[in-house]
Write a structure and sequence with these properties.
Blueprint: E1 4-8, H1 12-24, E2 28-32, H2 35-45, E3 49-53, H3 61-70, E4 79-83, H4 88-97, E5 101-104, H5 109-166, H6 170-199
Parallel strand pairs: 1-2, 1-3, 3-4, 4-5
Amino acid sequence: MKPRILVVDDDEQNQVLLSVKLEREGFEVEKASNGAEALDRAGTFKPDLVLMDVMMPVMDGYEALRRLKSREETRYIPVVMLTGKTEIESKVLGFEVGAEDYISKPYSLQEVAARVKSLLRMRALQTKLRETEKMAALGEMVDGIAHEIRNPLMAIGGMARRLYEHVADSQHKNYAQRIIKYVERLERMLLRIDEYKTIL
């Protein structure tokens, strides 16, 4: 599946130039003409990265970025601001609002494509790191549960074996045997959990 890029610019020529370049680089591209459209497209298109102009009608890039970063489903999408505003204050504001990068116009299409690729590689690594952290947390939780089960299980198994050895009543002996059987089944499950943890 091709990485998805949302190009947000009120200048149609800029949209076309960026789209053609990015499509040639192997990306799937969707376009929006202002910040409000960008928010709608981000929800439906689900981009992997957003290229966002700053000065636009209806809703400017800063406000659109602010809203993207406030939503759980779009918070982690990298956003590159593209703008003719070259003042340091403008760039600082972009980064403060949540932009991952800032490219001043006029820009090189090759540079934009290179930065897009770099940010997508970083995003892939961050996603992998988050997944690894989730797996580690899950492993710790499973380990804790297994430990909590193992101790009472050993006690139940030990008492059931004593009952089996010392009771004469066949019915009670049968109950104890069934308890031992289920305890052994649970012990095998815990052993499989331990084996699975060593693989991870």
